[in-house]
Amino acid sequence: MKVILAEHSGFCFGVEKAINTVFSKMNEENIDKRLYTLGPLIHNTHVVNELEKKGIKAVDDLDDISNGIIIIRSHGVPEEVYEKAKLKGLEIVDTTCPYVKRIQNIVKDYYLIGYTIIIVGSPDHPEVIGINGWCNNEAIIINSIDQTKNISFIDKICLVSQTTMPIELFCEISKDLENKTNDIKKFDTICTATKRRQDSTRNLAKEVDAMVVIGDNHSSNTKKLLEICHSINPDAAFLIQSKDELPIDQLKKYNVIGVTAGASAPSWIIKDIVEILKEI
Ligand code: SF4
């Protein structure tokens, strides 16, 4: 069987940096404190379970711990979380992706000089919740063009985007808002890692007989990759988290298989799966 791996797949820069930081912290000599992550470090049950075995526990709230080291994941967190962690005497290991940190800094700076912050993003997404926490949780959060219709005149707007939003939506919303203000500062804060992964998945899916998408079914970027593959070949797209879930019997009938992976799929899992497929 011929197996082709998508040109861009797996860990993005931000997630890779987060994982490396956690592993190097874990391997520090003389580390005598317990490590915790605020929420799962990445959307990958396999990796989270591995981390748990190594003593890194995911907690939902700082109230769940009284001492130790708290790891802030790549999505980032509201400003108040840093303050609370310091008050509790916790050591902070901050793995907020630099692209997300940039958004947090923009909204804080513009909020402080009187701009209304508008975030194009999903209100429930941890990254957006985190960004909103840098402007006193006062941002207007919108994720469709219809929602801009409900916005009346605003004196000064600072517009940013969740890193994974489609650029088309950001442009459309930004154009609409231009007519509702005298002063708009627009920051295209979309990260190209997501778009590149989606484009290379789309291109590969058109070339092969079937696609294997590696990632967690809770990860929105992985689900998006599966959706793209389904739109090209509805009967030949398979989502798996690890090699144990490979639908070998179903895959046997294809000659060329494409493999892609979401942003939280580690390279070692991708490599294992590609090797097994090649053996078929
Ligand atoms: S998708 Fe982009 S912004 Fe998000 S963690 Fe990865 S590199 Fe950072």
Automatic annotation (TrEMBL):
Involved pathway(s): Isoprenoid biosynthesis; isopentenyl diphosphate biosynthesis via DXP pathway; isopentenyl diphosphate from 1-deoxy-D-xylulose 5-phosphate: step 6/6; Isoprenoid biosynthesis; dimethylallyl diphosphate biosynthesis; dimethylallyl diphosphate from (2E)-4-hydroxy-3-methylbutenyl diphosphate: step 1/1
Residue positions binding [4Fe-4S] cluster: C12, C97, C191
Gene3D superfamilies: 3.40.50.11270, 4-hydroxy-3-methylbut-2-enyl diphosphate reductase, catalytic domain
One Gene Ontology term from the biological process aspect of the record: dimethylallyl diphosphate biosynthetic process
Key word Calcium present: no
Residues annotated to bind dimethylallyl diphosphate: H43, H75, H125, S219, S220, N221, S264
Residue positions of the active site: E127 (proton donor)
UniProt KW keywords: 4Fe-4S, Iron, Iron-sulfur, Isoprene biosynthesis, Metal-binding, Oxidoreductase
Family: Belongs to the IspH family.
Task performed by this protein: Catalyzes the conversion of 1-hydroxy-2-methyl-2-(E)-butenyl 4-diphosphate (HMBPP) into a mixture of isopentenyl diphosphate (IPP) and dimethylallyl diphosphate (DMAPP). Acts in the terminal step of the DOXP/MEP pathway for isoprenoid precursor biosynthesis.
Protein name listed in UniProt: 4-hydroxy-3-methylbut-2-enyl diphosphate reductase
Species, as recorded: Serpentinicella alkaliphila
Lineage: Bacteria, Bacillati, Bacillota, Clostridia, Peptostreptococcales
